[in-house]
Design a protein that fits this description.
The structure is a single chain. With about 325 residues, this protein is of the alpha/beta class. It starts with a strand and ends in a 6-residue tail after the last strand. About 10% of the residues lie in helices and about 30% in strands. About 45% of the residues are buried. The protein is built from four helices and 26 strands. The longest helix is centred in the middle third of the chain and has 15 residues.
Amino acid sequence: VFTPTSIFGPNNLEKTIAHAKYFNHELVVDGNVTLSANVSIDTLSVKVQRGGMFNLNGNRLTFGSASFNKGSFEAGNYQVFSDTIGVAFKTGMAIKANIMWWGASPTITGVSGPVDVGYGNNDYSAHQDNAPYFRAAANAFYETNHGKGYIYVPAGPKKTAYRIASPIYLGADSLFFGTINIGGDQDMAGFSARSAIIADFKNGPAISLEGQRGAILENLSILGMNGAHIVSQVQAGVPSISDYWGEYGYAGVHEDSIYSGVAIDAISGTARKTSDVVIRDCNIMGFNVGVMVSQAGDLQGDLTTVIDNYFYANTIGIGIGDDQSR
């Protein structure tokens, strides 16, 4: 039994919520709903149908309860939130925040390997930048759940990828140690069918973990722009490793300037040190460094586990900058 938001119209969300609570109904969003003030949906089960949309209009929309393990949120692989800020999932909700809910889309096609991604071969500037939607999903947990949650990256059609034009930072803005897990769809038949991200910028990590404890990265293809260059240098028999550092990314001596697939504690001087990160079942390709731990050399990035991953066309597979890292 459910209460559709259309029963009271698009501008009466509070009335619809009260009706659903009174009759113990599921709340079904079957069209556009516009918020006129901050709204909390604490103990209800919420389902957003395709075509349904929460227009936040600059307001805050909170799901779940910090005190009760009640309430749920369900939606498919389509956009359901109009704004990239203002959505919050509270402690009581076990949820995977789908980046498509904020408008992410894997618009790059024809990606079958790092050579296809290489700079000089493609100009991705016309494609949507999905980094803001990754941040929106992360912020939904930071606001009320101390940076603990799961970001879900659904796979698009085969050989498609999400473009990001800036790094995805997880944990640096939290007041507490965060545990933001991020994962996609697993397909052992080939990396091109997995959830793929292309880091379309010149320096810095695709994914940067700061102040994380026990975070998991899984089932992702993280693709850099250096693949074609690295492969061509290998095929040409170039002996010097310095020649493998292509246009995208610098050798880097400080902060997060190295072009890497995943960076752990790359930013110097942060008070919250990352530990117990697990990177598994991922493909990391086309970077100067596949996984970079404690680049600045003053943080441990301790107890990192890298297991069952596929590294290809990276100048360096795993870099460790602190002699206390394990």
